[in-house]
Specification:
Layout lengths: L6 E2 L10 H13 L9 H20 L11 E5 L2 H15 L5 E4 L5 H12 L3 E4 L10 H9 L6 E6 L22 E4 L18 E4 L11 E5 L24 H16 L1 H25 L5 E2 L13 E2 L5 H10 L2 E2 L15 H5 L4 H4 L4
Parallel strand pairs: 1-11, 3-4, 3-5, 5-6, 6-7
Antiparallel strand pairs: 2-8, 7-8, 9-10
Helix pairs in contact: 1-6, 2-6, 3-4
């Protein structure tokens, strides 16, 4: 007798590959098997597939596709690399080291990039998080409001993978003259994005969060922005060396098309399921004499992320018990998997250690 399929509740880490995306990748493989930098006919065919995918993604994300200051899309190995390219690329291109503003709602790759900038002379300025929502935008806006003589650089995470809260990017709009990187990795599949309307200099995402392939990501770059490459090479406009993953790029574009076409319906459906799950967990826990708290419950949240804390219980033990019961869930971001430390955003929000150590 076959084992039942697991209940998969870790879509914030990675989603299953959409069959329509797999089919698009299979078609691309038949055309784009050559190196897209090669000058022969097969290479030109691969280049055509790659650039078609780039244009479709740029259009779907609201980038400026024409004109003297055309926005750019650089393909990377994932959102982590895109975050590094954005922050370190802008830091290296600045007129000297300055202040880099970030928060603990940012992904570990952002924190790693910030630390690398710190080793290069940048002063790291961690901003506090709102205790109820876990948002950083208002604190960032206050921090950059004062005049400065040093270069400044801002990192904001649109949807926090630790709480699900959606950042109010508009509150930082007054600081639009400050170069700002937005990590939209958790947002791209369920939150409408119009890059040209955002006060963002760069924006990162990866398609494995919305039914696309793993191993590829993208960085949108505002027209006229200068970045220094982190991994130099002739490919990707000189900003990311290495032969491009053409088939993955085709899958990226198709996944984004599918997500955009059905976004509103899916977001509403997932939000209803999340709310139902949270109510059920809290109700069942309390009937069993277990305290339960939904983190950032009153904040505006992306529908696919729910964080529930059970003070007094060990979160790793809860995750292991769930796994044995056929339920896949996480106790933090996948990139911090296995860590016994509480989620950094929850600590920065000032939640009690009991709650911080007991969330899933």
């Amino acid at each position: 007798m076959a084992s039942p399929s697991p209940v998969y509740l870790d879509h914030a880490a990675a989603t299953p590959l959409d069959p329509a995306v797999a089919a698009a990748m299979e078609r691309a493989q038949g055309i784009a098997y050559a190196n897209p930098s090669s000058q022969h006919a097969a290479g030109r065919a691969a280049r055509s597939v790659l650039e078609d995918a780039r244009e479709r993604i740029l259009m779907l994300l609201g980038g400026r596709e024409s004109g003297p200051v055309r926005d750019r899309l650089v393909f990377t190995s994932g959102a982590s690399e895109a975050n590094h390219l954005a922050l370190l690329g802008m830091a290296a291109a600045a007129a000297g080291a300055g202040d880099l503003f970030f928060s603990r709602r940012d992904h570990p790759s952002v924190l790693s990039a910030a630390a690398a900038a710190g080793r290069r002379g940048w002063r790291l300025r961690e901003v506090p998080l709102d205790a109820a929502s876990g948002l950083a935008g208002a604190a960032v806006a206050r921090a950059v409001a004062a005049p400065a003589t040093r270069p400044r650089l801002v990192s904001l995470t649109l949807v926090c993978s630790q709480t699900g809260s959606i950042e109010d990017i508009s509150c930082v709009a007054a600081a639009a003259t400050v170069p700002m990187h937005v990590d939209a990795t958790q947002a791209a599949g369920l939150v409408p994005l119009v890059f040209h309307d955002l006060p963002a200099t760069t924006l990162s995402l990866a398609p494995h969060k919305f039914g696309g392939p793993r191993g590829i990501g993208g960085l949108l770059i505002r027209g006229g922005t200068v970045l220094e490459p982190v991994q130099a090479g002739t490919q990707e406009q000189g900003l990311r060396g290495g032969t491009e993953a053409v088939v993955l790029a085709a899958g990226f574009a198709r996944a984004l098309e599918l997500a955009a076409a059905d976004r509103d319906r899916v977001a509403a459906s997932v939000a209803r399921l999340r709310d139902r799950l949270e109510r059920s967990l809290v109700d069942v826990a309390r009937r069993g004499g277990i305290e339960a708290h939904v983190i950032a419950a009153d904040a505006v949240r992306c529908p696919h992320i729910a964080t529930v804390a059970f003070p007094g219980l060990d979160r790793q033990a809860v995750a292991m018990a769930a796994d044995l019961a056929g339920v896949c869930l996480a106790t933090g971001t996948a990139c911090a998997s296995g860590s016994s430390e509480p989620a950094p955003a929850l600590v920065a929000m000032g939640l009690s250690p009991e709650i911080g150590r007991a969330h899933v």
